[in-house]
Amino acid sequence: AQTVTQSQPEMSVQEAETVTLSCTYDTSESDYYLFWYKQPPSRQMILVIRQEAYKQQNATENRFSVNFQKAAKSFSLKISDSQLGDAAMYFCAYRSGGSNYKLTFGKGTLLTVNP
Amino acid sequence: GAVVSQHPSWVICKSGTSVKIECRSLDFQATTMFWYRQFPKKSLMLMATSNEGSKATYEQGVEKDKFLINHASLTLSTLTVTSAHPEDSSFYICSAGREIQETQYFGPGTRLLVL
């Protein structure tokens, strides 16, 4: 079974600074997808970014980018120019490449943004 | 696009009663929907996978007779908590898969409090 590990229960960053959230995963599959979801205090899960394992290029979405290291099974999220609205719980998630859409989540990292 | 709604957003009920939660994909058809449970400051725990027109697939340890799932159409799945007890109090979240983009989109969640 696949596992997702987020080793940082909490992180903090100063507004306008950059922060990196770590995520590692364990799988024997070659075809899969990785996601970062954000859950603010409202508890609405919001997709931040997604990466297909077959793509070598790291995904980026505005201020959010990932460092995908397939051999190391690492998938970190970098948030640049942090904003107060980035404060949230961040979950890393894994999905197999087949027709099974099941997501395996990490335990989450609580990000605090200090003004 | 890719909006998922849940109703109700919160519900309080007496012990022994049943509660139904609806999950709707508003602007796309979802052959597969998922139901999660989340405890405070914890990650999402997958309860079951709901497939349109067929029986739901439950995760290990989830009582099928306790948590009834019906996926009657391509835009609606329901979760019924039968004979609810205080230990069923939790935050329940649904998600729907858009096959083409292979990403899950989440509803806003339902807070259930059983007295």
Briefly, what is this?
The complex is a heterodimer of chains A (115) and B (115). Chain A is mainly beta.
Which spans of chain A have pLDDT < 50 for at least 5 consecutive residues? none
Question: Structural class, judged by helices and strands of chain A?
Answer: mainly beta
What share of residues of chain A is helical? under 10%
**How many beta-strand elements of chain A?**
12
Give the terminus-to-terminus CA distance of chain A: 41 Å
Tell me the helix content of chain B: under 10%
Record keyword descriptors for this entry.
heterodimer, A: mainly beta, 6-stranded mixed sheet, 4-stranded antiparallel sheet, globular, B: 0% helix
Explain what the structure shows.
The complex is a heterodimer of chains A (115) and B (115). Chain A has strands spanning 3-5, 10-14, 19-21, 24-26, 32-39, 46-52, 60-61, 64-69, 74-79, 88-96, 103-105, 109-114. Chain A has 115 residues and is mainly β. In chain A, the strands form three sheets. In chain A, strands 2, 5, 6, 10, 11 and 12 form a six-stranded mixed sheet that branches. In chain A, strand 5 and strand 6 form a beta hairpin. The N and C termini of chain A lie far apart (41 Å). The mean pLDDT of chain A is 94. Chain B is mostly beta strands and 115 residues long. Chain B is built from no helices and eleven strands. In chain B, strands 2, 4, 5, 6, 9, 10 and 11 form a seven-stranded mixed sheet that branches. In chain B, strands 1-3-8-7 form a four-stranded antiparallel sheet, with no helix packed on it. The chains are: A mainly beta (115), B mainly beta (115).
Topology summary:
The complex is a heterodimer of chains A (115) and B (115).
Chain A lengths: L2 E3 L4 E5 L4 E3 L2 E3 L5 E8 L6 E7 L7 E2 L2 E6 L4 E6 L8 E9 L6 E3 L3 E6 L1
Parallel strand pairs in A: 2-12
Antiparallel strand pairs in A: 1-4, 3-9, 5-6, 5-10, 7-8, 8-9, 10-11, 10-12
Chain B lengths: L3 E4 L2 E4 L5 E7 L6 E7 L5 E8 L5 E2 L8 E7 L2 E6 L8 E9 L4 E4 L3 E5 L1
Parallel strand pairs in B: 2-11
Antiparallel strand pairs in B: 1-3, 3-8, 4-5, 4-9, 5-6, 7-8, 9-10, 9-11
